[in-house]
Amino acid sequence: MVKTLLERLGLASLSQAKKETLVQMTILSVACILSFSVRLSSVLRFESVIHEFDPYFNYRTTKQLVEQGYYEFHNWFDDRAWYPLGRIIGGTIYPGLMVTAAAVYNVLNFVNVTINIRNVCVFLAPLFSSFTVIVVYLLTKEVKSVGAGLVAASMISIVPGYISRSVAGSYDNEGIAIFCMLFTYYTWIKASKTGSICWSLTCALAYFYMVSSWGGYVFLINLIPLHVLTLMVTGRFSHRTYVSYCIMYSVGTILSMQIPFVGFAPVETSEHMAALGVFGLCQIYAFVTYLRANMSATNFNILFRTVVTIALTAAGLAFGIANFLGKIAPWTGRFYSLLDPSYAKNNIPIIASVSEHQPTTWASFYFDLQLLVFMFPVGLYYCFRELSDANIFVILYSITSIYFAGVMVRLMLVLAPIMCIMSGIGISTTLSIYMKNIESEGGPAVAASKSSKKKASDYPIKSEIATVIVTVVTLFLTTFVFHCTWVTSEAYSSPSIVLAARGHDGNRIIFDDFRESYNWLKFNTPENAKVMSWWDYGYQLTAMANRTIIVDNNTWNNTHISRVGQAMASPEDHSYTIMKELDVDYVLVIFGGMSGYSSDDINKFLWMIRIGGSTPEGEHIKESDYYSSTGEYKVDKDASKAMHDSLMYKMCYYRFGEIMTEQGKPTGYDRVRNQEIGNKDFELDVLEEAFTSEHWIVRIYKVKDLANRGTT
Amino acid sequence: KSRTKGSQAVVSTQSTGGEPIREIAAEVGLEVDEPGTAVIDHMNYDVADTGNHVLIVAGDFTSTEVIVGASPSPVLFHGVGMAADSENPLVIDILRASDTAYSHSPDQDILEYPLAIGSSLLLVAGMQARNNARVVVFGSHDMLSDKLYNAQAQTVASTTSQEAGNRGFVSAVADWALKRNGDLRFSAIKHNKVGEEPSDAAYRITDDVEYSIIIEEMRSGKWAPFQAKDVQVEFVRIDPFVRLFLVPDSAGNFKVSFKVPDVYGVFQFKVDYDRTGYTHLFSTTQVSVRPFRHTEYERFIPSAYPYYASAFSMMGGVIVFSFLFLYHKDTKPAAKTE
Prior knowledge:
The complex is a heterodimer of chains A (712) and B (338).
Chain A: H1 2-8, H2 16-38, H3 41-45, H4 54-68, H5 70-74, E1 77-78, E2 87-88, H6 96-110, H7 117-143, H8 146-158, H9 160-163, H10 173-194, H11 197-213, H12 217-233, H13 239-256, H14 265-268, H15 273-294, H16 297-324, H17 333-339, H18 341-347, H19 349-352, H20 362-369, H21 371-385, H22 389-407, H23 412-442, H24 444-453, H25 462-490, E3 499-502, E4 508-511, H26 513-524, E5 530-532, H27 538-545, E6 548-549, H28 558-569, H29 572-581, E7 586-590, H30 601-612, H31 641-645, H32 647-653, E8 669-670, E9 675-676, E10 687-692, E11 698-703
Parallel strand pairs in A: 5-6, 5-7
Antiparallel strand pairs in A: 1-2, 3-4, 7-11, 8-9, 10-11
Helix pairs in contact in A: 2-7, 2-8, 4-6, 4-27, 6-7, 7-8, 7-10, 7-23, 8-23, 10-11, 10-13, 11-13, 12-15, 12-22, 13-15, 17-18, 21-23, 22-23, 23-24, 23-25, 26-27, 28-29, 28-30
Chain B: E1 9-12, H1 19-27, E2 30-32, E3 38-41, E4 56-58, E5 60-61, H2 65-68, E6 75-77, E7 82-84, E8 91-96, E9 101-104, E10 122-128, E11 134-138, H3 146-149, E12 152-153, E13 162-163, H4 166-177, E14 183-193, E15 203-204, E16 208-219, E17 222-225, E18 232-237, E19 239-245, E20 247-248, E21 253-259, E22 265-273, E23 281-290, H5 305-327
Parallel strand pairs in B: 1-11, 15-23
Antiparallel strand pairs in B: 2-7, 3-9, 4-6, 5-8, 8-10, 10-11, 12-13, 14-16, 16-17, 16-21, 18-19, 18-22, 20-21, 22-23
């Protein structure tokens, strides 16, 4: 049938190689198109909006970049965020994403494709996921074979672990960073295979792009040295590796230091020391090899021992002194929490409070990777069978990323591509082994030639076993496709700025409270009003309401966030002094008790208490005070006095006691906590209600002035 | 926020004062003692007193000159006493009773503790609200009457009599209450880099800036330049980073210049002048202070010359080395190692 099709298209005359290329190109382009279109469900279901929180900030900065030009963007001091500290945007972000989007925008507009910047931002991640498909193909091809590459490419195009961060509208660093990372790996494998300066420089440039777009580059700059080190230990270190690593490291490091946010980190912080150490080790290794070739064995041994002893002592001493003097920056909290999952929970509430920094559950491994979880070991096995420099690299990549993905949910993203590559290798190898066995029955000519070669591996019902295995694999692959499509459309296509729920009669109800309230703020409050909210909503507030905010999602100043936490957790009069100190005009809270929206501020309140209590000013805030006498976190009448008195409680439940939320339940019944609130009848002294959105999800309060006539 | 919106009121009451007056007084943080009571002072009553010791001579004025005028003489008072709400920070004690006075009904035995005694017992009190509206409550109609205006005041203890200060005191207090005195206003706030015109652009850290504000004072019903030495401007970002006295010129233009601190952020020029008897002047002007732009850093730092030298010598060295390496022929070709 394929033959007739080819004949009809006039392609039958093509040579075998050309036909193969055609098939490869077709598969690859279908995978690219698929990866782009599968990510559009969110646009189809809702609209072309930016999702979540961080993307709003990226969108805002991109707009600035497009409107004001690069230098204004680079020097941008944002006085709308972190009032009154302000934030130097240019020096505290990875600009790769914005620059990429702006470049796409400018190029398109230059060729008279008039597309607005928001749409560029919305569709950038799907676009880059298409590029990722190609890179995965190339990478797997380098490691294994074209067939494996095609399987891996098809898988990466729909794997949910990657889709979760790259659907249309999810305009975040990770959207392009995964492409950058895999491209760097590809160029690195190319470079280390060929030892060519050209590939090494390409690798350095790709690394630069990666550094400019995501903080996850630290993984990359540790993995490549690890690869080199492993090659050294296994005796595979060659001149090719030496040339490629030395060039990649030196050029890449110098380039990476051009990003203001990275600055001197590559030569100062512990995260980057491994790369530097391996660079030094390369020189020593090469030198030792050179000496050994030119000296007698005994002389060499004596020299070697003395030098090693002296060098180790000196290095240990130097490291100790530098550490003691604080020259080597202490490892950052995020890094510690990578090594020890419980570190953040015990020490840094601000890191632990972010849900994507939580350890991954087994269920989410299966949910995000499905079949890949099982095919991964198969691929790993085949990689070990034919060990090569490139194979060692992917093995290292897979093992390290499995560990990191287990520590932090967010890093599932790093794991997904290698899972695809490994499974691609596994499936492709399995299939190509057993496909041959099926063929042996159908084509007698082929069978004859094969059977003579492989007599030893012959066994009964060979073809039947092969058929079963191929069928099973096909079945698995089909379910994989269904699973991926389902996960994508159900779980990962919600913009979270617009919420959807099912009503009693099965109708879809859209909650558009966020945009409603941000617009209210935009049109009803003075231009320079300061809005206080928990940091989660900071980026959205500045981007959509265009108002000054106290804290936002760039959680760089713990004290400042803690101050807001204290304001939320303290009784009204105490909060008032904090709010006056920060010149707050409006306070915004997210409340789900009416609509059943569970990630609201009352559920985040424990983190506010913890973060608020973590600084000296917040000593009066103790977590235990907010639990009921039985040690539970409650909002009903068992809740503690501190809980009832806190500003957060009052803002969320103000006038809520008058409302019937569910049939057959008393008034003031919180649908998230499933409790009847304990304090129904109270007044606010220092605040007045300014706005409550349709489903009560967003409530905005105005901070009152002091009473005109003193105390009355 | 800055200027007066409310209106002024002058209220007087008496021992027989009704409930509405008491309520008005309560609104402004004063509690008028119950009907039938009077301020009694057995030591400092006037010689003209009829026997209950309720016509008293009071001289414990507030020290604020702008309210009571310069050196007021003791006044005659016959009326009801008041106590200030201790929670209310806005009440001004204009005239306090002497230490020996108390407030009680003159014809009843004292069984309970009086509302107030001594200097916590107020005879005339005022309040300036947060919107700068002023209210004064006199505890006596009589002290505003022609009779006491023209009377002679002499306490029983003293031998000399002098003219009662009622006329001067009352008109001074009324002038203050009706904002013919002690009212302040500001205008023409200007801030700019030294030597430049004001602009909307943000300041840069370590810029030299000038700040000026014109403040005028209402003096006897006419606006005149304000001439105080204690007006301060603060440069605030949560905490004040700079706090300086403003220097007035003859036209009431207060001016100061200073260097912006080496800290970026959103700052406010804040003038917060709160003196008893004067309008509360409060003005904030928000400005952003940005860090250096990438072109504003020093390009060549003397202390970095060794590094420049080392970089260039390294480059030179590499060129020389490559040249030698490429064009130098070894005598023995066998020595080549790869």
